[in-house]
Design a protein that fits this description.
The chain has 3 helices and no strands. The protein is mostly helical. It has one domain. Keywords: Cell membrane, Membrane, Transmembrane, Transmembrane helix. Belongs to the UPF0410 family. InterPro entries: Transgly_assoc.
Length: about 90
Amino acid sequence: MIGSIIAWIVVGLIAGALAKFIMPGPDPGGIIVTILIGIAGAFVGGFVTQNILGMGAGGFIWTILVATLGAIILLAVYRLLTRRMA
């Protein structure tokens, strides 16, 4: 249980950092928001690949790529929402 939570945090950190690297810019939040966007991105990416594209889970690299894609989508949505509120 604790090991899987730590694994999700590590995957989220990697995915969030990659998303931030691909989409640089000033974002409110910091490392915690980056990790949360990465974790949520893993869920979004997993949902899209499994339910919409019909692709199953792969190895670690595939998981990072899917999580990063989801994190990029969520980061773009996050930026749109924070711009509208500001």
